[in-house]
Structures are given as C-alpha cells and as structure tokens.
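Sequence in, structure out.
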Amino acid sequence: MNAISRNAKEKLYFNIFRACGALVVLTLVVIMAYMLMGSLPVLSLDFLTEPPRGANTLGGIVTPLVGTICLMGIVFAFAIPIGVLSAVYLSEYQGKGWGARFWHIVVSNLAGVPSIVYGLLGLALFVTFAGLGRSLIASGLTLAILSLPIVISAAREAIQAIPSSLREASMALGATKWQTIWHHVLPYALPGILTGIILALSRAAGETAPILLTGAAFYMSSMPDSIFSQFMALPYHIYAVATQTMAGMNGSPVVYGAAIALLMLVIGMNLVAIIVRKRFREKYRW
C-alpha cells in the first residue's frame, strides 16, 4: 500500500512539473505567435534594410537594429572580461573571510538594482562627469555596468563548481596558480560562464531606461558615425512608436515587427552561445 502511495505521489509530482514546463513553453509560443501575426504586414527584407520614416511609423528598422548590435558589442567588450576576471579574483584569490561575504552581498544586491538607477548613474558618470555626452559609448558603458553583476555571479558559481582536485593536480605537476586557472579552471567553467553571458547580454539588449537617459535618439535618418554619436536602438524605438505616435497606440505593425526583430536578435545570440557552450562541454568533461 505504501509503495502504491509513493508511486502515485511521484506520478502526481511529475505531472505537476511537466505542466509547469509546458506552461512556460506555451507562454513563449503565445507571445511569439501574437507578435508574429501583428507584424505580418511589414515583415520583409526591406523592413530590415530601410531606415524608419514618417515619425518612425513607416519604413524599416535598420537604424535601430544596427544601433542595438553596436550596443551589444560595447557591452561584450567591457562587461565580459571585467566580469570574468572579477569572478576569478573573488573565487580563487580573495579567500573565505568576511571580505568574501561582503563582496558576495554587494554583487547580489547590484543584480537587483532597477535599471533606471543605472541610467541615472550613467547620466551622471559618463554623460556629464566624463564628458562623453549622450552617445553610443555612454549608453554601452552604462549597460556594461548593469550587466556586470550577472556575469560575475554566474562566472563565480561556475568557477567554484570545479573540483579542487583539478587545481591540486595541476599545481602538483609544477604549474603556477595562474597557469592552473587559465589552462584548466576557466576552460572547464566556460559552459557556466557562457550561461551568465547569455543572461547578461539578453537583459542589456532589452533595456530602455538606461539608454533613454544616456544617448538613444527618437529618430535618426543615418547610422551613428562614431561611438560618440547618438544612435537609435530597438527597445527605445518600440517604446517611442507605441507610446508617442497615434499609429503605435492603435497597434502599428511596425511595433510588432521591431519586437520580433529584437527577439530574433536575442535568440540568435543565445543560439551562438549555446553552440559554443555545447562544444566546450563535450571537450572538457569532469
């Protein structure tokens, strides 16, 4: 009787978990289908290759699309190296005293700070104090700071998950601590680090408040000619069209088309990271 009861409970829990997983997938499918149906009138190659016109309610999205890609490049160039090296220091060099607990609390709290606060920080630090003005580089650096706690937390967890026996075996053969970290710890931790990179870039790609305060323009007919120029970006473009134009308030297909493009950009970055992560996971097994 007890065995039957345990089996019934196990089956019940399994069905609950399956339903929760199916609900998540169904939500994504419904969102994608809703936006795809709304964007069908504008989806074409011209939509991706033409700049906006007519107060952003006509034309394409090439200008905000390129601006978003440039932003992601800046975030990747600054946030990823600094975040991973910070995680290496916190995991391998700092020790386990009160300092380690203090920095763990700081990083965890920074990950929960609202994005508008980072926008105000970027406005004061990069736009005003550093004299960068409302520009692509100011927005990119602001998003890089926003992404740092996510990268640090994920990289730190991945590095700490590597067995200490791997480090001991490497140093027993004469390798230095840094050689051990560079050639053994980081390659084995890379799948987990890439997960953090995926989450950080995905969050940065969809943020509106920080770039609104630090450099995003409502409309530009041309691409930014340098990192010190203003730019258009898909999140702000979607917000502006949806809230500042009558066509957007009435459900303009441009809004849904831009949203689909942003989702595809994020999914594309995720797919690349997943493929790289899979290859490293197959190569470095422990």
